[in-house]
Amino acid sequence: MSHTFFIAFSYIVTALVVAGLILRAVIDHRIQLRALADLESRGIGRRSRRG
Amino acid sequence: MIRELANPTRFMSLSGTLLPWVGGLSAILMGVGLYLVWFASPADYQQGETVRIMYLHVPAAWLSLFFYMIMATSALGTLVWRHPLADVSQKAAAPIGAAFTLICLFTGSLWGKPMWGTYWQWDARLTSMLVMLLIYLGILALWRAIEEPNRAARAVSILTLVGAVNVPIVKFSVDWWNTLHQPASVFRIDGPTIHPSMLVPLLIMAVAFSLLGVALHLSGMRTEILRRRVRTLTILEAERLDAQAA
Question: Name one Pfam family in it (chain A) (predicted).
């Protein structure tokens, strides 16, 4: 195998792992925001314990 | 400053302002760094073009240790100072550190094959780095195994502090043992041994990766705070439904 293969593979794998980290961060954040909005739309707030 | 950030609402506000700047700066520096790596830095006289793997491998290795130190400091914050955001920081740092450790091992293996003639060698540096990945995976598994966040944080903190013993072993393994891996060539008492034409792109890539790591860490902490709010509200909802049923 040529050295180009090892260099290209290194950059592709790194790009994929970094893209995975960024995607995971964005998707997870959106899921939590949606869940929070859903709970609050049903009137579940921190103060609802008193009410 | 650290005490001020103990308030999650204040942290959310400050991190929300900082995050786009840190992420943007990381993207710009990554672009500059990659340009220098591919178009301005020379091939190595011995390794040829393969030296370009160094610009990924070395920053990933540094960040692997850097995120472990963040986790160890946060573990002390959880166990000793009981800082409310310490375990949030710990939990957010673990997958990032694990990912950089994986990049380090993978690119190192791909660099090793054409240079050493093997993908893997059980030498002290490579083995201690593999142990680092296993510790990261153990910490991630422990976070998932214990549902209650405070109990999980205490257990993970102890494991993190025990695992911190491996950090100096990784760093000094090339000095303490005779290894196939080369000794340090940047952070040395007598100064770096790399030519500036390679050192500058390497440092720019390291800063770009570090800022990316900080952006991911801030983002992860923000998501974890939201997750805990969702958990608290879900429990409140369940309690309210129970009370109504009774």
Answer: CcmD
